[in-house]
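Teaching note: in complex prediction, the entire set of molecules is handled at once rather than each chain in isolation. The prompt given to students was simply: 'Predict the structure of this complex.' The entities are:
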Amino acid sequence: MAFAFGFPLVQVVRESFYAGSFSSPVWVGLDNYKGVIDDPEFRTSFFNNLKLLLAVPVMLGLGLAIALVLNDRIRGMRQYQAIVFLPYVLPATAIGIAFSFLLQENGVLNTFLRDLHLGFIAQDWIGNSHLAIVSVGGLVIWQQLGFGVVVFTAALLSLPPETAEAARIDGAGWWSLQFRVLVPQIRPIVELLTVIQVITVLSWVFNYVYVLTSGGPGYASSVMELYIWRSFSNGANGTAASVAVMLLGMATVLIGLSLWVRRRAEVPA
Amino acid sequence: MRQATGGRLVGILGKHAFLLIFCVAALYPLYFIVSTALKSNAAYQLDPTAFPTHPTFSSLRAIIADQPLPRWMWNSFLVTLTSVAVSTLFALFAAYAVVFGRFRGHKVFLSTSVALMVVPPVTLLVPMFVFMVDRGWVNHLQSVIIFYTGLLVPFAVFFLTNFFRTVPQELIEAASVEGAGPFTVLRQVVMPLSGAASFTLVVVQAIWVWNELLIALVFLQNEQARTLMSGLAQFQGRYSTNQPLVLAGALVSIAPVVLLYLSGQRFFVRGLTAGIGK
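The expected output is the structure of the full assembly:
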């Protein structure tokens, strides 16, 4: 562990202050950072990561809704859960390719919309510079939804049935039972999963972007990971390293947050 | 009374309808991959959504016979097997030492593991690449095997530690009193109890490695050395006019994962919820 993490973590910080090839690095101080911040491609990438944050409440909200419905001891619960969870285990590469075919200008989704006389909704989901990152967000939600469902369902099933029973006897309706009694009890888990998914959309979406849009059109749907990969492929190692350090900084804050939330989640409230 | 049951029935039907919408959304892309992979390109061009009434294996056959796909699968298989085996073995010893050995600093070791679980792999990319170049390991499978193993270990340690905590301490003490050394205790007392947990861990890790793209893309650029995922990503650009061919490749890459999932679905759900610390 010390080797796989310690060595590269120290090294990446060092490299972020150098430019040039690996064999003859030149000390450039903070120039890599300055160059990156002035680069519109980096800024677009950074803001795209922020836009993807909007996917987190959607996937967790839907996940929670599904888990609450499943928690009603609904018939076929296991089967429903298994199906909704399935996308989570599939390779994002293969799925991303399928989505890129489904969402293209003359793809299945638009054909379907036109057949329903909803052609005005049809869009170039991947080629449009504003929509491309939205499509990426949709794919992330599609794949990550089941994770929330499984975690929330497990948390709900582990709750003592007495509190729900007591609320029911007091005449609580379905909605107030869910949102006043059940959801507050699993709040620590919701918080923990929120932090985990925020880390995911900030630093773990390369796969989706690479196969769905390749960051395009142009760099309109690029993200920080893709920026690192592109700079690195073009030989700009210092640039790549400096973005990696920034990403690491953001991740560290979130990791601290996750440790803190995790500790709270382990304490029975 | 009758009205109340009617209302309940509507409620139940509403819930099923709600869940079914998500099931269809989850399954449709899969159906699209399978049905397209079983069509000829001509039939697909004619109607991409039609049910494959005359299924053909020509796309599947073409992708297996004319492309390095079997080679890539073999690479993926080797990489997955090795990195998962090494990380699981390492984690077994480490978690055992943390829970039963209580060595100095085991708390720090454990929180470090939890923190490292969420370090973005992309941030380690540049230094690891330099390291592998120095050793001439780029385009060789050991580069990604080492990287993957390192990335898997924190989760594996965390996962097994959580599980070992549920093993009654008395069992260990009883065995120790009878003179069993730590390795004997691990092999004869702890391991037999952790079959399901280890299986879960192996499945979760294997799927992660099998699906990984970024690292494979960077470290294995040679056509013969690619893993299935990085090879598949190449197909997408190269055969953009023959989508059934590309999706046949996607199908081949998905099939093992789906089989693994179906065989261990129960373990899976348990494993992931354990990973979150519950």
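Point out the following to students. Chain B touches chain A through 77 residues (CB under 8 Å). The mean pLDDT of chain B is 85.
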